Each structure stands twice: as structure tokens, then as C-alpha cells.
TrEMBL record:
UniProt KW DNA-binding keyword: yes
GO molecular function terms listed in the Swiss-Prot or TrEMBL record: DNA binding; DNA-binding transcription factor activity; pyridoxal phosphate binding
InterPro entries for the chain: Aminotransferase_I/II_large (IPR004839), HTH_trans_reg/aminotransferase (IPR051446), PyrdxlP-dep_Trfase (IPR015424), PyrdxlP-dep_Trfase_major (IPR015421), Tscrpt_reg_HTH_GntR (IPR000524), WH-like_DNA-bd_sf (IPR036388), WH_DNA-bd_sf (IPR036390)
PROSITE patterns: HTH_GNTR
Family classification: In the C-terminal section; belongs to the class-I pyridoxal-phosphate-dependent aminotransferase family.
The name this protein goes by in its record: Transcriptional regulator, GntR family
UniProt key word Ribonucleoprotein: no
Domain of life per record: Bacteria
Domain HTH gntR-type: 11-79
Segments traversing the membrane: none
Gene3D superfamilies: Type I PLP-dependent aspartate aminotransferase-like (Major domain) (3.40.640.10), Winged helix-like DNA-binding domain superfamily/Winged helix DNA-binding domain (1.10.10.10)
Natural source organism: Ruminococcus albus 8
Alphabetized UniProt keyword annotations: DNA-binding, Pyridoxal phosphate, Transcription, Transcription regulation
């Protein structure tokens, strides 16, 4: 089997292999239980190194698309799922493994202090400026670069909106999409999510979950026009949506012309050491709004989050809520831009993973 590798692309070769195999699995070219080509065979056909293929296969396994069988090979685990109820063992699916809740207490304060001093010296009085709407260009560009190299997400600066915490961005979303609309939430979910939406005039429909995410019969039942999901490590259930259930979310949004708000809180600290594929990156139809925050990865006091808007929603954003001023001080924005571009953000995540022996 041959996969064309674009040597000029900024996307790493292993991600190109991963994306092509994932698309072929979802499209049905590889059915459930099918064996993928051996790693050596695929490396030879694609003219890439063996570690490149090994990395791509590992990502497929981490995402739940495939599974490795000892001394046998890599087999497809993904199967197209129709909209029917899925049973679950109630005693186990909503338990949180307290031993694996990660904290950012391993970030050295000296590094933060040194970076802040550098920002003050480099930017001077610019830290006292009023922030441009949507956030300063330095931080928005730094987020774009980080997402491109680490999360397989490629967006323009205009698609990145900076806000003081995820809760603030939840409110921006519902004001943009329309007060009074019904929004579907995971049950159970972080209680403030429901509170913010109700405070902004939304009607909340709580959808029951099983061990793979929101149950498909619940998705079929709801009349909601918006779906808010936390695909990785949903709080307080601890459930991570499976690859096939995430695909169901996307199909649900496409069929109804609905919008998914993807709350990607905590995903960088995934227990297997690789951040999961986001719905935003998987979506080909501009149905997903992506939200993430730096509160967990750096410090709870750093009330900075960002939202990625699909291009088709940019005019609606400008028309409805584009007049809002950015609520994050320039000092924090410049600091985060330097933190991301210096590579310290990735080093911080790896340091915490290694400390927690994940």
C-alpha cells in the first residue's frame, strides 16, 4: 500500500501517514478486524523510516482506531456505529482515578519569573496597552504555531479568540449562536457549564453517557442545535469518548447542520503521553468550535483561554459579539506568547507527565 508523503509540507510525515490511514478506516476501506500492512512493508512503500510508521500506528492505537496484537500486527478496532443504545457497566464507567489527576505543581517558579522579567524588559510600556479585540497578534500567532506543530490543527490568526477563562468563552459562544436555543450537555458534566449557558438564556438538555461518551440514542433523541462535549477525560465522569463515538458526534452535527462546542480542557495531560485527535481537526464541514485553557497546564491563576472558530462562523462572530474587548491583560498575553514560542509549554507538559510516571 502506498501513501504519498508531501516532503514540502509542514505536517510531519508520521502525521500524514496517520491522517491517511485514519481517513481510510473511517471511509470503510479498512473494515473492523482488518489487518493493516506490516510496519516494515509500509515504511518501504512510503519511502520513510520505520519509526515514522511506528509512531503513526501508535497514534491510531491511542485514538482507538486500531489495536496492536503481540507478534501479529496492527488490526482495525474502529467500526461504524448506528444510532442505537449502548449498554454500560454503571459501577465502573463514572469513576475517576484520583491517582492520575495531574496538577501543575512541578512548573518551576523560577522559569515563570524569568520569562515575566524578559517580557517586561522586551515589551516595556506596551504591557500597559489596551488589548486589541480578540487578543494580541503575538499570542494568537503563537497559538497557531503551537497547534500546527503539536495538535495537527491549522488555523489563521483571525480564527483565534482570546478570553479570560473557558467560562467567559462559553458565554461568548451562546451569545453568538443565539440565546434561547437548546444546547445538549453531557450528563454528568462540570456544573458551571450548565450554569453559564442558562445564565445566557439557553435551554440545556442533559444527555446520558456510557463508557464511550454520550449515548447514541440520546443524541438521536435530543432536538438540540448545539452540542457541548468534553471528549477527553470529561469531568466528573472521567470518560474519554472513543474514536467511533467522536465520529458519531461529527456525523450528528453534519446531518443536523448543528454546532459542536469542543471543550478540550486537560487533554494535553492525556495518560498515554499523546494528546488525542480533536474534533476540530477531524471536522471537514466547519461544524466545530474549539475551546482550551492554560489554567491547568500552567497555573489556575492564569485566567487565559482561547477559542478557535471555523471560518464560516467568523462573519457571525463579528456581527454579534465582535465588539467585545479582550478581557486578558497584555502582560499575560505577551508572557504566554513567549512561553509557547520558546518551547517551554511543551517541556512543562512532558515534565509533569514524567513526574507522574505516565
Amino acid at each position: 500500500m502506498h501513501i504519498r508523503i508531501d516532503r514540502e509540507s509542514s505536517v510531519p510525515a508520521y502525521m500524514q501517514v496517520y491522517n491517511e490511514l485514519r481517513n481510510r478506516i473511517i471511509s470503510g476501506a479498512f473494515v473492523h478486524g482488518a489487518k493493516l500492512p506490516s510496519k516494515r512493508e509500509l515504511a518501504r512503500d512510503c519511502l520513510v523510516s520505520l519509526p515514522t510508521i511506528e509512531h503513526a500506528y501508535q497514534l491510531l492505537c491511542d485514538e482507538g482506531f486500531c489495536e496492536m496484537r503481540l507478534r501479529s500486527g496492527c488490526y482495525v478496532k474502529y467500526a461504524v456505529e448506528s444510532f442505537f443504545p449502548v449498554s454500560a457497566t454503571e459501577e465502573t464507567i463514572f469513576q475517576i482515578d484520583r491517582d492520575h489527576i495531574l496538577h501543575n505543581d512541578n512548573i518551576p517558579f523560577s522559569s515563570v519569573a524569568a520569562m515575566l522579567r524578559k517580557v517586561i524588559l522586551d515589551y516595556g510600556e506596551r504591557i500597559l496597552m489596551k488589548s486589541p479585540k480578540g487578543g494580541c497578534s503575538q499570542l494568537r500567532d503563537a497559538i497557531c504555531r503551537y497547534l500546527s506543530r503539536c495538535r495537527n490543527i491549522n488555523v489563521s490568526r483571525e480564527q483565534v479568540i482570546i478570553g479570560s477563562g473557558a467560562e467567559y468563552l462559553y458565554g461568548i459562544c451562546i451569545q453568538m449562536l443565539g440565546r434561547g436555543k437548546t444546547i445538549a450537555l453531557e450528563s454528568p458534566s462540570y456544573e458551571k457549564i450548565e450554569a453559564v449557558y442558562k445564565a445566557n438564556g439557553a435551554v440545556c438538555d442533559m444527555l446520558e453517557m456510557d463508557g464511550e461518551g454520550i449515548r447514541t440514542d440520546e443524541l438521536s433523541r435530543t432536538s438540540a442545535e448545539i452540542l457541548h462535549v468534553t471528549p477527553f477525560n470529561s469531568f466528573p465522569s472521567g470518560v474519554t469518548a472513543s474514536a467511533k463515538r467522536r465520529q458519531v458526534y461529527l456525523e450528528w452535527a453534519y446531518q443536523r447542520n448543528a454546532v459542536i462546542i469542543e471543550d478540550d480542557y486537560d487533554s494535553e495531560y492525556t495518560l498515554n503521553g499523546t494528546a488525542p485527535q480533536t474534533l476540530f481537526a477531524q471536522s471537514e464541514n466547519d461544524h466545530v468550535i474549539y475551546i482550551n485553557t492554560f489554567s491547568k497546564t500552567i497555573a489556575p491563576s492564569l485566567r487565559v483561554a482561547y477559542m478557535l472558530l471555523p471560518e464560516k462562523l467568523l462573519p457571525l462572530y463579528e456581527q454579534t459579539v465582535g465588539f467585545y474587548s479582550c478581557t486578558v491583560p497584555m502582560l499575560e498575553q505577551f508572557f504566554l506568547a513567549e512561553w509557547l514560542d520558546s518551547g517551554e509549554f511543551e517541556r512543562t507538559i512532558n515534565r509533569v507527565r514524567n513526574t507522574k510516571k505516565i
